[in-house]
Amino acid sequence: MERYDNAFAQLKARQEGAFVPFVTLGDPGPAQSLKIIDTLIEAGADALELGIPFSDPLADGPTIQNATLRAFAAGVTPTQCFEMLATIRQKHPTIPIGLLMYANLVFSRGIDEFYAECARVGVDSVLVADVPVEESAPFRQAAMRHNVAPIFICPPNADDELLRQIASYGRGYTYLLSRAGVTGAENKAALPLHHLVEKLAEYHAAPPLQGFGISSPEQVTAAIDAKAAGAISGSAIVKIIEKNVDKPEQMLAELKTFVTEMKAATRKA
Question: What is said about its interaction partners and assembly (predicted)?
């Protein structure tokens, strides 16, 4: 969890927001996936949000579902994902690493064992997409036991009670939804959510990162203008992978350009 605190403190000192890319581990295959992650970090990613391939991803649009299918086709398993995470952590000791995943993957290992494994390989946070705050106790308690930050989604229609719970239980960062629905770069992020950001700050929530539909530097700037601590972009990045599956070098070059431009948009004028 300390890696998030350190990262946000350093960004604040430099007057920058965070740019956080999302990719699915093992897409399009384990070796290229590790190269992709190195490229994202070298191009300026401030933290990583990584998915573990899952057979029934409810909150994901077609782009991320296809990433999962490519990883499955390459034979990627959750055990292999943890091995990859250990490799990433060894190579990049300071970057915050978050997992975005589904409850079945946690249950299949055993809740406590899952978070113990996260701690062992150097994962800083876990967001379980299909577990609402009110059902999160066993997950967040296991997370805290192993010094892994439990991350919660703050939807655009969150009421006061939910905001208080998110602020109370969440650590690391708060995942601020641009809008309801499934992920996807086509579903453009709506107007920045000033009131939610203000309320979260009032209740001392972990710094909010805006996600869902973030695909352009302008949207990153808008998120930061709305006082979000940064932005998360997934589908737009995974599209670059999808488009260049047969051109691995071109893929890395395009990812580098995209992340560099998105990161530049986090620097406050």
Answer: Tetramer of two alpha and two beta chains.
